[in-house]
Amino acid sequence: MISRFAPSTTGEAHPGTLLSALLVWLDARSRGGRVLLRLEDLDTTRVKAEWATQLRDACAWLGLDWDDVVVQSDRRAAHEAALDRLAAAGRLYPCACSRARRAGGRRAPDGGWAYPNTCRHRRSDGWRDRAATESIRVRLDDDAIALVDDNGVDLSQTPALDMGDPVVVRRDGVIAYQLAVVVDDHDAQITDVVRGRDIAPSTATQIMLQRLLGYPTPRYRHHFLLLEPAGEKLAKLHGAIPFSWLQQRYDARALCGVLAQVANLGAGPTTPRELIAGFDWSKVPRDDRVVRWDDGLVF
From CA 291, how far away is CA 299, in angstroms rounded? Predict the structure, then answer.
């Protein structure tokens, strides 16, 4: 069993980041498996090296260790090799459509606007030779994916229709998330993917890409999220409560105890290693939890 915690390095670690890291780590360690840290740093417009360093330091401070650390930007050659395979299969095509052009169309399962496969008829002479104003998409099969994950989340979709053909190379030349995560999971021999349920709508697309590349599909589990009150809407708990703030108010055992409490895994100061013996997914909430962080956690 090999799992991974794969945060993007586009901001400071926050309670939701650390909760996900803890759950991924406990799942692997309680089953005698390996667990990797993959720093997803491809979005050059948003990532900062100091955030990657802080994320590693925050995990170590909390008591989480990794069997390997992978920096996604070091894997460009592997991503390009996968693109070459898709190009050879006639699957890639250029696209000049903007997000604004999709607005007002059909809603996708992730809440955004589905791409209506407008440019599917186009053919690519080579993804490396694309115009600077165009992205590269992959033509998916129009097949349905029927899957319920290990947490009971229904991931079933017809991704080519429900989401649209995904971008695999952005206009700025950055390898897009959907392709990078599929290639990286395969090359690391990931057997189990544990991640927040906000990523669940992407799973069917990733499974379709796995099939196009001849990769096996890992097991999936999408855990609950921490949400914050935001008027009538609930926003995902994010960098408004950064790790630098948390570290001033908690020591590592105390914060681990708070995260364990919100996940129904215990109460009181503790360490990740002390939680291994009693870890069981049946204890962990399936529904997202609304929390407020003032001087402490309220939920």
Answer: 4
List, for the chain, all residue ranges whose pLDDT scores fall below the cut of 70. Answer: 101-104, 231-240, 294-299
Secondary structure class of 31 (helix, strand, coil)? coil
Q: Where are the alpha helices (DSSP H) in 32-90?
A: 49-62, 76-88
- Segment holding 205, helix H or strand E: helix 203-213
- Give the integer Cα–Cα distance in Å for 218 and 141: 20
Q: Which of 22, 198, 188, 5 is nearest to 110 (CA)?
A: 198
CA 289, chain centre distance (Å):
19
For 296, counting Cβ atoms within 10 Å of its Cβ (0-12 exposed, 13-18 middle, 19+ buried), the class is exposed
Q: How far apart are the first and last CA of the chain?
A: 33
Q: Is the pTM of this model over 0.90?
A: yes
- For residues 138 and 115, what is the distance between their CA atoms, to the nearest angstrom? 12
Q: pLDDT per residue over 63-82, tens digit each?
A: 999 999 999 999 999 999 99
Q: What is the predicted pLDDT for the residue at 44?
A: 84
Residue 153 amino acid letter: V
- Each domain of the chain, given as residue ranges in start order, spans 76-181
* 247, containing H or E segment: helix 243-249
Collapse the DSSP code of 261 into the 3-class scheme (helix H, G, I; strand E, B; otherwise coil) and give the result: helix
Is it true that domain 76-181 has CATH number 3.40.50.620? Answer: yes
